[in-house]
Amino acid sequence: MVTDEAVAWLTKLRDKEKPFFLFVNYHEPHDPIASAPRFTKRYSDKGQRSRFQPDISSLAAHHGNVTQMDDAFGRLMKTLDEQNLSQNTMVFFTSDKAQPSSNRTLTVRRDRCVARRGRLRRGEFVYQE
Hints:
This protein is an all-alpha fold. It has four helices and no strands.
């Protein structure tokens, strides 16, 4: 749905005489996971649980969800090509920190922004040497 709206805006609604800024934010693969069956089918032979992430109820659904997002992003990039925009458009693809779902098996040492509220002050940067 998000990609459909972005594609519609790129092809029909934007002012083609002006530069543009488009922010597309995907939710995948966070809970609740809702993937179309055509994306999860290819992973149906995967187990139902991961020993490292016991709270993921279905790896097939998770992997399918990532594949679904990849497909959607590919459609967006294809639209940029079709609209002759890919050569003069900057695309930034970012993601969240993707921390493990369970803290029982893995310990993540957090940085100063995430671990404690209010630790970054007076012009400091997140990464300093």
